[in-house]
Amino acid sequence: MTSVKNNNMLPPGLVSNLQQVLLSRKGGGGGEEEEKKSDPSNDDNDKSTEPSTSTCVENTEEESNNSKPIVLVTNGDGIDSPGLVSLVEALVRGGLYNVHVCAPQSDKSVSSHSVTLHEAIAVTSAEINGAIAYEVSGTPVDCVSLALSGALFSWSKPLLVISGINRGSNCGHRMIYSGVVAGAREALFCGVPSLSISLNWKKDESQESDFKDAVAVCLPVINAAIRDIEKGFFPKSCFMNIEIPTSPSANKVSILMYFSQIAEQMLLLIYRQCAHNYRPLSN
């Protein structure tokens, strides 16, 4: 019988689909294997030939560098969105982190903190250069919950969850409706530090290249947050919602200087405010 680590009440249909995806990634889920299991003349027909999901996951990630911090990326706009792709490519290119992706298969903006309960969701291996990636036919919350369940990845939990970069503002009351913010919030509920990042997109003014500029703007904050998580300074009682202004290239120099020079001071100020207003979540 195939087992899944920390199943977290995942739908049986999803578990079955996960096994197929993980096996196919290693080339072990082909037709020949199915024929061997169904062939009555096979002496080993009464034995289980399907490896456990946990073993398959470990084999899938055997080439990962365990010495690097693990970062999980999700979003609300879908796995093919330019914001997520630009962010993942930049994180991989930097070479500082093991980057993993679990994101919605399609646009799930304005999904708030919704979860899939009465139907099975499917997961599919995705291609993003340098990152282990999966797309899920569910919400951002489904993606984070699944990634942290142990069903997809061999690690118990990442050092940081980043949700974004989203197309459109998510400050103020928009945080209530936002799927990308919910992805970071779900990580918080699971005890994992998280950031949600959004670009204030304006029709007829914003352009796709703005996402690359937005990545350059927020990378100093991401790096500073990870350093502080490793030092134990990052607060356990909240997540950070980062809003990148419209057309960051227009103010690229000033924004980059601001984030680069005072990223640590800004985080320290936020931490102090959080410590004053909130009590840490129990582990």
TrEMBL record:
Compositional bias segments (type: Basic and acidic residues) = 34-49
Location of the region described as Disordered in the Swiss-Prot/TrEMBL record: 1-73
Q: Would you say which domain of life the source belongs to?
A: Eukaryota
Q: Which GO terms describe its molecular function?
A: metal ion binding; nucleotidase activity
Q: Survival protein SurE-like phosphatase/nucleotidase domain spans which residues?
A: 71-251
Keywords, A to Z, come to: Hydrolase, Metal-binding
Indicate the transmembrane segments per the record.
none
| Family membership noted in the UniProt record | Belongs to the SurE nucleotidase family.
What is this protein's record name?
5'-NUCLEOTIDASE SURE-LIKE
Lineage start: Eukaryota, Viridiplantae, Streptophyta, Embryophyta, Tracheophyta
